[in-house]
Amino acid sequence: MTETLEQELQTALLAVRQAALICRTVQSAITDEVLEKKDKSPVTIADFSSQAVICRALHNAFPEDPIIGEEDAAELKGPENREFLEKIVAELTADGIQDPTPENVCTWIDYGGAKTYSDRFWTLDPIDGTKGFLRKEQYAVSLALIVEGKIVLGVLGCPNLPFPGENPTAGTLYYAIAGQGAYALPLVREQEPKRIRVTTTSDFSESRFCESVESGHSSHSHSQQLAERLGISKEPRRLDSQAKYAVVAQGEADIYMRLPTRPGYREKIWDHAAGVLLVEEAGGEVTDIHGNPLQFDQGYELKNNQGVIVTNGHLHSLLIQSLDELEF
Ligand SMILES: Nc1ncnc2c1ncn2[C@@H]1O[C@H](COP(=O)(O)O)[C@@H](O)[C@H]1OP(=O)(O)O
Ligand SMILES: [Mg+2]
Ligand SMILES: [Mg+2]
Ligand SMILES: [Mg+2]
């Protein structure tokens, strides 16, 4: 990568930080402001507010860049959801965003409406782990830039993950640029970025894995069988969202398993892109369950991949081999 991506990095860090702080405000006040999407998954004022501010910032800085975002404003435009839209407007007004009229908010959200692959695009999950967000547990704001099918920049805002090596619940902002390493910044405090690295564990008996809280997103029974086969005895760490990638990248777990619960599900690119680069730049390895690289040039889904396996690198090939043998 000869380009420095400095402007992209600064724009992305500023936007994700702002969105993460908005999410934190909404999470601390959360009541029952949830919409149900067509696929029955929840979406909140914070998901829409986060997508609005990030897409607005990206559009201002890089008007030509398509954004493949998770949410769209279609449902917000219906009269039955006017009150919900007004709440987003009120939230963005309180956050000091300029001119957040209902129309502008919908326009900003829909900047994230690209669906197809292009040579250079952003992908955004305004809140990854909405279920964790609603439980007041882990969630992440995830943004990545993909150029010619390769993830070149990833930013992950994790408002409820403590800064590595510190206790307070102040939250952490992670970023990685291809070829330049993975870093953590406190979400609120000004500080030099701290380089993060995966563990050097090469023995499964000393390893710990993490996985989804939701057994509907990743099979807990299969991960347990695999753990037994490999001699992993430590309890898994269960947490929502791409925070799992951050936990592996900063060496707090050695493995993240995402094992399919049904054959037809295809992972979405915004659920992985930022996390993948973070782990790779921290020295780790990411593939699907068959050991194939994740392909980010197939549109909004990882069409040619099934599940995801993330490790510190040392444990990767043996883990994939055991998965193969288990033939789930
Ligand atoms: N059957 C499934 N398998 C894997 N991931 C899923 C499945 N259904 C939903 N998801 C996605 O898992 C992500 C959360 O993952 P985690 O459990 O690791 O926190 C969400 O983005 C969610 O997408 P969606 O936004 O459509 O709900
Ligand atoms: Mg969702
Ligand atoms: Mg989401
Ligand atoms: Mg998600």
TrEMBL record:
TM spans (from-to): none
Keywords from the named record: Hydrolase, Magnesium, Metal-binding
Family: Belongs to the inositol monophosphatase superfamily.
Name recorded for this polypeptide: 3'(2'),5'-bisphosphate nucleotidase
Cited Pfam families: Inositol_P
Example of a GO biological process term: sulfate assimilation
Chain sites annotated for binding Mg(2+): 70, 125, 127-128, 271
Phylogenetic lineage: Bacteria, Pseudomonadati, Planctomycetota, Planctomycetia, Planctomycetales
Highest taxon of the lineage: Bacteria
Cofactor(s) in the UniProt record: Mg(2+)
InterPro entries reported in the protein's UniProt record: DPNP (IPR006239), Inositol_monoP_metal-BS (IPR020583), Inositol_monoP_superfamily (IPR051090), Inositol_monophosphatase-like (IPR000760), Inositol_monophosphatase_CS (IPR020550)
Catalysed conversion reaction: 3'-phosphoadenylyl sulfate + H2O = adenosine 5'-phosphosulfate + phosphate; adenosine 3',5'-bisphosphate + H2O = AMP + phosphate; adenosine 2',5'-bisphosphate + H2O = AMP + phosphate
Enzyme Commission designation: 3.1.3.7
Gene3D superfamilies to which the protein is assigned, alphabetical: 3.40.190.80, Fructose-1,6-Bisphosphatase, subunit A, domain 1
PANTHER family cross-referenced by the UniProt entry: 3'(2'),5'-BISPHOSPHATE NUCLEOTIDASE, PHOSPHATASE
SUPFAM superfamilies: Carbohydrate phosphatase
Keyword Signal included in the entry's annotation: no
Gene Ontology molecular function: any one: metal ion binding
